[in-house]
Amino acid sequence: NSCGHNSWGDLPVADTVIRGLAEELAAGDRLADKDAFRAAATRVRQRSGAKGKDLFHPIRLALTGEASGMELDLAVPLLEQGAALGSRSGFRCVAGAVERARAFAALLPQS
Fold first, then answer.
1. CA separation for the pair 63, 53 (Å, rounded)
2. 76-92 pLDDT, tens per residue?
3. What share of the chain is helix, strand, coil (3-state, %, to 5)?
4. Which residue among 2, 49, 82, 104 is least packed, with the fewest CB closer than 10 Å?
């Protein structure tokens, strides 16, 4: 909203989506392209039952830290490419999707 607060929508659903995302990414490969991201999002949808904004808004917040932005199937592979560069590239290290989802899920209250 205009006060700068993020709208989570249904909090229990968002919690389930983020925990499911962290578990899904920990068990799989990096989200190196659109298809890998879309497949992971489908598995999170199946696990959580969330669809549309209830699915993608929590994923966006967890992986990008932003409430809006470019399409996730484009943004997430770019994050993964940055993470793959590593510290030897001379660039600042970038956390990948697995690390971001794990860190965000760790901040959620224990259920």
1. 15
2. 999 999 888 877 778 88
3. 65, 0, 35
4. 2
